[in-house]
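=== Discrete structure encoding ===
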Amino acid sequence: MKMKAPLVLSLLVLSVFLLAAMASVPREWPELVGATVAVAERRIKQDMPGVRFQTVKPCQSVTQEYDSSRVRLYVDEAEEIVVKKPMVG
């Protein structure tokens, strides 16, 4: 029984560190509304290096599933300017 206690404690400590690290990564970027797509992508990649982007044009429908490695960039007709807050999902 004594061998299990250190393992459980180690896993608990590791979980706390992982949760703290995840909490420090932004999940949305409201300051990028009005930015160009290139600027938004560069900025978001600083926070999430492995991110995948999906560009969404006006009136384009999207699926409802959540994807923690995706950020949707809602853009204007010219597909140059971000018009809605980018968010993970």
User: Anything to note?
Assistant: The helical segments are 4-24, 37-47.
